[in-house]
Write a structure and sequence with these properties.
Blueprint: E1 4-15, H1 18-54, H2 70-84, H3 93-114, E2 136-139, E3 155-157, H4 167-170, H5 173-176, E4 178-181, H6 186-194, E5 197-207, E6 210-221, E7 232-239, E8 243-247, E9 260-262, H7 271-282, H8 289-323, E10 324-330, H9 334-339, H10 347-356, H11 358-372, E11 375-379, E12 405-407, E13 414-416, H12 417-435
Parallel strand pairs: 7-10, 10-11
Antiparallel strand pairs: 1-4, 1-6, 2-5, 3-4, 5-6, 7-8, 8-9, 12-13
Length: about 475
């Protein structure tokens, strides 16, 4: 059997001591310092070359262009770090390397976007970070760090500076070396020790008012059948706000009889508490201790909402990808929906779209189907799934968002708007599967084949020198629409 690998991130919440949290903040500050230094050097080089061009200096005599790759920036930083950062011995080298690499990646994205190589929205020149920016550090060189996990699988190693001058670090190296985790690392440690997973990088960040560690692991996999019993071959998912999703095939304990999956609206449930915290923050003075406490409370509240939403979406995506062989979804332009509110939309609708997490659900469905050897079919975003009748195919010119019942003027059928859209997405997914050049009789990729036809075709004409006679093409069995 073919053995391949995939990259996955395992997120573990941390519970550091106050001394460890202070050390982590110093690491993130050092990473931010190296990031700003790299961006400043690159910007200074561009400004110098531009001033020389204005002065009339030939292109060959200009100041040499600075390479933005991390392999060029890292040696340059190491040559000047004793001058610009004399305190560098109290911070591990991974902090500076992480900042330089992040800046190089940002400069690369800017260059590719400027030259038209990078797809998507334009990327501007990197901006400088401040102390309010995201606190994160990535441990890249992990070959000399030994094991990341303790014997009890409850602690993660914290890399300390080798030649620290701060007595608070030198005297308490044993206490600072291991950070406690709120979840067990037994499974992750077992996979790493067995050689099935390999830790590539470890990123420690402060998100949602809490520290967490993200292990980027390389998983060696062998394609195996899904452990969950398949309920059906195909399911279509129509995403919405009133209902988080509408399934073409209802499932017990996941949706109602019509296929509607409840939208829990995690953020709306905490709006009252968030408004109270905002009022309290407005009465606090800047730089006060009470303001810092309230900011931390608000960060933790947002973090709890985000974690609750992620767990709910994981449950939904795991059930769908494990129960069906093919999942059909729409290619929604979420960024365009929330970028600029339309005349007939409100601010609450934009907030509800963010709260639903359509993009996260699409991402989870994509990688979970790949893990199980299943298939995801993406329907074009311009396909009129809501405006077209799923019974006769009649298409309406306009359909307001407030109209929750679809009534066809041609055949007279009356359906729920989301149920009608889910059925149309299902039919379009079946059509795309049928027209795929690599599909024979089922949803899985088996052998290469021509476009499917519903009738026999005549053999092509050949010259007299052809030794082989063509055979009449056999019709390919088409997929029948699911009820």
């Amino acid at each position: 059997m073919d053995v391949s690998y995939r990259m996955r991130a395992v997120v573990v919440p941390l519970d550091p001591t106050p001394a460890q949290a202070q050390l982590l903040r110093s690491y993130c500050g050092a990473s931010r310092f190296a990031y700003n230094w790299t961006v400043a050097i690159a910007k200074q080089n561009l400004v110098t070359r531009e001033e020389e061009r204005r002065a009339g200096i030939d292109e060959a005599n200009l100041t040499k262009a600075l390479s933005w790759s991390p392999y060029s920036m890292s040696p340059l930083w190491n040559s000047v770090k004793e001058e610009v950062a004399p305190w560098n011995r109290d911070v591990c080298k991974h902090a500076f390397r992480s900042g330089v690499n992040n800046a190089s990646a940002a400069l690369k994205n800017f260059n590719e976007s400027k030259n038209g190589v990078r797809r998507g929205s334009p990327v501007g020149f990197p901006k400088f970070k401040n102390r309010h920016s995201k606190q994160t550090i990535t441990m890249i060189d992990i070959s000399r760090c030994g094991s990341w996990f303790s014997e009890d699988s409850r602690h993660v190693r914290l890399i300390l500076p080798r030649f620290a001058m701060d007595p608070r670090i030198t005297r308490r190296r044993e206490q600072l070396q291991w950070m406690h985790t709120t979840e067990s690392l037994r499974r992750l440690k077992k996979k790493v020790m067995a050689g099935e997973w390999t830790v590539q990088t470890v990123t420690i960040s402060f998100i949602g008012g809490r520290w967490r560690s993200s292990f980027l692991v390389r998983q060696f996999i062998v394609p195996t059948p899904s452990a969950i019993r398949l309920v059906g071959p195909l399911v279509a998912v129509d995403l919405g706000v009133k209902h988080l999703a509408t399934l073409s095939s209802p499932m017990k304990e996941l949706s109602d009889d019509h296929g509607h999956v409840e939208n829990p609206r995690h953020l709306d449930a905490e709006l009252t508490r968030l408004a109270k915290l905002d009022r309290q923050l407005s009465r606090c003075g800047k730089g006060s201790k009470n303001r810092a406490k309230l900011l931390q409370r608000r960060q933790r509240l947002y973090g709890r909402v985000s974690r609750t939403r992620s767990l709910y979406l994981h449950r939904l995506s795991t059930t769908l990808t494990g129960s069906f062989e093919t999942v059909v979804v729409e290619d929604l332009d979420v960024a365009g929906m929330v970028k600029k509110p339309k005349k007939n939309s409100t601010k609450s609708l934009t907030r509800s779209i963010h709260d639903a997490g359509w993009g996260e659900l699409r991402r989870q469905l994509t990688y979970k189907t790949e893990d199980r050897g299943h298939h995801v079919v993406v329907v074009n975003r311009f396909y009129p799934s809501s405006k077209m009748c799923s019974h006769c195919g009649e298409t309406k010119a306009k359909l307001a968002i407030s109209e929750r019942v679809f009534e066809c003027s041609n055949c007279g059928i009356s359906l729920d708007r989301d149920v009608n859209a889910a059925r149309n997405i299902r039919d379009e997914g079946i059509r795309l599967l049928t027209n795929e050049a690599s599909t024979v009789a089922g949803h899985k990729l088996e052998t290469l084949n021509a476009d499917s036809r519903d009738r026999e075709t005549k053999p092509p004409r050949r010259g007299r020198g052809d030794r082989y006679q063509s055979r009449t093409a056999q019709p390919t069995r088409k997929l029948s629409p699911l009820a």
